[in-house]
């Protein structure tokens, strides 16, 4: 694929708005338009399961047979398989070998329930994987341990199944296959992340997808985290594919106890789960206890011990409503007792050594290692919780040294002396994942315990007026910085035991204001106060000029003014009075052309005058005479004229008699509609009740 197409695909992937299924749809449409997808009929024998399917768990053989039975029971529906997608097997031999080997490992752990790998398969399923592998198993005559299928025949056979389920659609699927959307291998070659992303989206909405276990979800979170470096983003992406309500707990396990940014412990547990063909859930209560229980050490987080406890429940033969019940919350809480600390630390130290040894040899995830080390994990967990003999094997060891000795014996090449276990009876901020070394570092452990302390953020302390900036943690202390108002900083060390006195705060340390800022904010330089003063001057001028001899006027409850006696031309001036407000330039232009009353200040600013409020019934307020002068339709009817007079720095509108007014004559004015400069008043209606 060319760089432009890859960038476009990555932009869709990283779109913060689109839901995961919409992203997948846009990607597939783009690939189709570029010619990377073709639709063709594939037989089950042509298909492997993609190694990235279900976050690396691929498929669970028991689920394959269970889903097959369910499909036969309700009737085979080819329509439900219309959205089947597969990636072409790589043309690069080394990559192809890894793809074939992943399937071979799955088949070997399936106890004969999955069809052998022929090596001629051409495609790897990203959806419809359970159905395609069931059809392939039927065609290959595989064994079954599903009680419903086994009641018909313990060996899968199309002829036998057709006698019970005479379904032509199923027969055609087994013998002829069905239509698949086949994606060219160059897509995955150009975008290694694509298969993992697409399978998650497809399996999220696929009607036949099995419910993802906690470890599969942990692997999905780990994969997204590795790409985005954001645990929150990884959890949200996974949430769009799963409605597990305690997904945040699974995310915390990935962050704090996965063993580092390659997530070796999560990968190991997924492979162990697959080795047990287990689809049991661990449950919210157990997972919360695994992640949240503090075992009282300042030297280790017990990341390996927590994985041991999970491993034991993955092997559980006890379950209730699909949730493993070999170990429960109370078993973990008992490990908090001081008498258990020595055993826990010894298990952690030995387990960490064995995991790191396997990682150095690069064989931690190999089938035989998963079986042998998995049994060691399970035995340690049952030893710690005093439940030896209650799991899949009845043997008890009684000590950690005996468990280790058995591990060394089973780990000897060519030695098959193993007890019942995996494979014998029955897979928008940068955050950091703790490595195994960090999980045993006192400073990292303190950081996990006091994770509410964030570097650079401020905290207050009980009985102190200082504001503390958190700098970091050491094995013994937390370091804060206190700064005085002169900018001098001093480091303060606080023991971990005293951190309960600190609380996050929005306060900032005291500091001297910048001289330039102080100069700018002096009262005499403050424009706002200059405007307030100017506004007060306008208000005072209006009040001063609003003094009128009311004895010459007759006022009515209809807000009208009449002459109470003969009034000579120009002998009375009526100015507006009321609250004033500064107008913006644009508002000033609009109001000059409208009915608003505007006072102009010589410096260019304009103030709108709003009629003063009054209540006749309560005899309160002030009558706004200016706003009671009534507009008329013709100049001949007008008894008053609108003028503008200057008072110091102000230009104020006012009304004057055009001519001598007779007693009883109404005060009216003609508002020139076409005159954009006129600013006539709008009558203020009297409030009479």
From TrEMBL:
Name of the protein in its database record: Uncharacterized protein
Organism field: Symbiodinium natans
């Amino acid at each position: 694929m060319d760089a432009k197409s890859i960038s476009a695909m990555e932009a869709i992937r990283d779109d913060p708005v689109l839901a995961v299924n919409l992203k997948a749809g846009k990607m597939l449409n783009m690939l189709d338009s570029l010619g990377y997808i073709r639709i063709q009929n594939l037989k089950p024998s042509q298909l492997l399961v993609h190694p990235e399917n279900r976050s690396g768990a691929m498929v669970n053989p028991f689920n394959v047979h269970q889903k097959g039975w369910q499909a036969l029971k309700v009737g085979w529906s080819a329509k439900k398989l219309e959205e089947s997608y597969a990636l072409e097997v790589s043309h690069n031999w080394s990559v192809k070998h890894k793809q074939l080997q992943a399937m071979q490992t799955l088949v070997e752990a399936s106890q004969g329930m999955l069809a052998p790998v022929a090596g001629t398969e051409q495609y790897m399923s990203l959806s419809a994987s359970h159905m395609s592998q069931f059809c392939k198993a039927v065609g290959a005559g595989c064994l079954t341990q599903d009680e419903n299928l086994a009641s018909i025949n313990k060996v899968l056979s199309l002829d036998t199944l057709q006698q019970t389920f005479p379904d032509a659609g199923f027969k055609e699927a087994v013998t002829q296959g069905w239509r698949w959307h086949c994606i060219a291998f160059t897509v995955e070659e150009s975008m290694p992340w694509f298969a993992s992303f697409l399978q998650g989206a497809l399996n999220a909405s696929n009607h036949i997808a099995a419910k993802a276990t906690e470890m599969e979800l942990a692997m999905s979170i780990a994969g997204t985290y590795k790409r985005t470096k954001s645990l929150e983003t990884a959890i949200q992406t996974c949430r769009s594919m799963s409605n597990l309500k305690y997904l945040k707990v699974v995310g915390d396990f990935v962050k704090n106890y996965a063993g580092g940014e390659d997530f070796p412990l999560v990968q190991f547990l997924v492979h162990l789960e697959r080795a047990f063909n287990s689809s049991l859930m661990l449950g919210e209560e157990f997972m919360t206890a695994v992640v949240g229980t503090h075992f009282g050490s300042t030297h280790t987080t017990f990341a390996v011990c927590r994985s041991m406890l999970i491993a034991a429940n993955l092997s559980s033969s006890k379950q209730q409503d699909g949730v493993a019940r070999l170990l429960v919350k109370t078993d973990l809480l008992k490990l908090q007792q001081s008498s258990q600390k020595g055993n826990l630390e010894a298990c952690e130290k030995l387990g960490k050594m064995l995991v790191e040894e396997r990682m150095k040899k690069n064989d931690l995830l190999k089938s035989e290692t998963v079986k042998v080390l998995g049994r060691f994990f399970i035995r340690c967990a049952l030893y710690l919780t005093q439940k030896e003999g209650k799991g899949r094997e009845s043997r008890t060891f009684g000590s950690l040294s005996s468990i280790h000795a058995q591990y060394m014996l089973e780990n000897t090449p060519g030695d098959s002396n193993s007890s019942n276990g995996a494979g014998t009876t029955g897979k928008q901020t940068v955050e950091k994942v703790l490595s195994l070394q960090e999980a045993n570092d006192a400073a990292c452990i303190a950081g996990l315990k006091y994770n509410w302390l964030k570097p650079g953020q401020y905290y207050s302390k009980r009985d102190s007026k200082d504001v503390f900036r958190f700098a970091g943690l050491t094995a013994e202390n937390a370091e804060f910085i206190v700064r005085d108002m002169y900018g001098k900083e001093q480091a303060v060390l606080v023991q971990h035991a005293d951190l309960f006195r600190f609380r996050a705060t929005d306060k900032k340390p005291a500091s001297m204001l910048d001289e330039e800022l102080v100069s700018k904010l002096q009262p005499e330089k403050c424009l706002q106060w200059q405007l307030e003063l100017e506004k007060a001057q306008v208000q005072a001028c209006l009040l001063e000029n609003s003094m009128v001899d009311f004895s010459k006027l007759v006022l009515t409850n209809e807000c009208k003014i009449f002459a109470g006696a003969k009034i000579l031309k120009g002998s009375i001036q009526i100015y507006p009075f009321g609250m004033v407000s500064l107008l913006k330039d644009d508002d000033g232009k609009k109001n000059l052309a409208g009915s608003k009353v505007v006072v102009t200040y010589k410096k260019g600013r304009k103030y709108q005058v709003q009629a003063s409020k009054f209540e006749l019934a309560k005899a309160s307020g002030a009558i706004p005479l200016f706003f009671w002068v009534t507009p008329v339709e013709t100049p001949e009817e007008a008894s008053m004229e609108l003028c503008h007079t200057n008072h110091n720095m102000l230009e104020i509108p006012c009304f004057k008699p055009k001519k001598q007014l007779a007693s009883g004559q109404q005060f009216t004015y003609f508002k020139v509609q076409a005159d954009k400069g006129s600013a006539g008043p709008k009558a203020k209606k009297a409030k009479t009740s």
